[in-house]
Amino acid sequence: MSDVNTHLFDTIDRQNRELPASTRRQLVKGTAAAMGTMGLLGFATSRDADAAVRTGEANNIETIAAVAATAEVLATIVNTVGVEKLGSRMDATTRRNVAAAAQQEKNHYELLTSSAVGGKEVTKTIYVPDSIFASPENLLGALVVGDQVFINAYLLATTVFARQGTLSGSKFARYTAEIMATEAVHRALALQSLGRLGNDRVYAKFSQREDVPGLPTTGKPGFFRILDAVATLESVGFGFGKPGSVPGTAYNYDEVAARTPKDPDVNTIAIA
């Protein structure tokens, strides 16, 4: 019997110590039977379960922080330039939401690269497919795709950080969970501006296949390795420090971030 099960059964026995010993034994037996029926007893004692939660080298903390910071470079650029190029063709609500997203992505980047986290972007130069800025619809569709990649990546990061079992690990897990929640809002608002149901998911998608029709990633599964976030973005034409697979334009983060809009109603934090 595992230490987990021993602790659980001892707790049941202790919390019911006023009952006769025979009754307490029946409670323990009943709990064990219920856990077995649900498959939980096997999970708690399985070596495979222990192995399944080990973090592979591909998902080390340094790589996750680097990929996340670089993704926020991309997101800051796409949202900022998107408003600049297409804002006059958007309705007022969509324009404000995309501009606010640019501000939030910039703040995410600043947090990830701060001394509190210590992330370092791989590059500050992103090649963005020219087609993305051809119309508001193209931009919004790209945001739906990109934000889902970020949701997947931050869910993965939350899992990895939580597994550290340390105070700093739990703090970083909270950071990434908070960022993931914001990315989910960005995705929902982009879908809504496309005339689709924005509030379309009961749970944020991790490894499941993309079920939104008409996207470059429709039908494709999520990922378990953080570098697959980069591969997914490259597959839709983005280039990181080099030209992508489709015609595009290079944008530098420092130049773009200097003109990222600020909405006074955005609730944010100061990054030291």
UniProtKB/TrEMBL annotation:
It comes from the Bacteria. This is Ferritin-like domain-containing protein. It comes from Paraconexibacter algicola. The lineage of its organism: Bacteria, Bacillati, Actinomycetota, Thermoleophilia, Solirubrobacterales.
